[in-house]
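Incident review: delayed structure delivery

Summary: a single-chain prediction request sat in the queue longer than the usual turnaround. Root cause was a stuck worker, restarted by the on-call engineer. No data loss occurred. The affected request and its eventual output are reproduced below so the record is complete for anyone auditing the incident later.

Affected input:
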Amino acid sequence: MQLMATQSEGMPQGPTSDVQSPLRPHKGLALTTVVLLSLAASACTADTEAASEKEFCDVPASSAEGESVRDLLKADELKSTVFAQTPHLVEGMKEGLGEDLKEQTPSQTICSFAPRETTGPKRLRIEFSWIPRNPETSEMDRLPGRLSHYKVNDATVEANDIVSRLTVPCRMPGGLEKASQKVLLQGQASNTLLMGTDVQQKTIDQQVTFLYLMTRRATEALDCANNPLAKEPVVKPSPAPTA
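Output delivered after worker restart:
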């Protein structure tokens, strides 16, 4: 499985946390769980926890997601804000999945990351939504600036210097199967830490890789029957997309 890209215009001693009520779509609630993640400590529990017991935003250094985000942010120690834990992600996404969805659902922000020493509001944010499988073309929905395009398995990705968007089919189980076949799951990574910097293609590729891995977590949490992101991402240039 290859992740292909082209361009076009267009903790030290362990985690600490303060858990409040979860953030839900359409709500003004905030959960500010700050977790200090270090290269040394996170690995201690990563191999002993069952995958189903891990929280969505937990990215120990020994995990593929942890290694990826540390490479992207160029930091061994991270801090993260958790807006929604795994059950709230699943509940919110299920609630947003209507039978006849005609426009994108409000994005559900799940977590954000930054190097531990970061001050100010800039973060790498991960969020998810549903989009109609065949939406009408709208310039307002397109990312601005020069874009990199990716294809990997059933997923399609486009990215500019700050934002990456991945769309993939997710066939939900049970009574949601019919509705889920009319939409695509969209994962988005927005990295305001990169604003005002000279962003290189390698950085864009790294962000797409991290988004792929986090969206894979979402497909697992949602129990997507088609298992669309099972393979590991490999970034590789692709031919220019056709009109």
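Verification: DSSP finds five helices and ten strands in the chain.
Action items: add queue-age alerting; document worker restart procedure.
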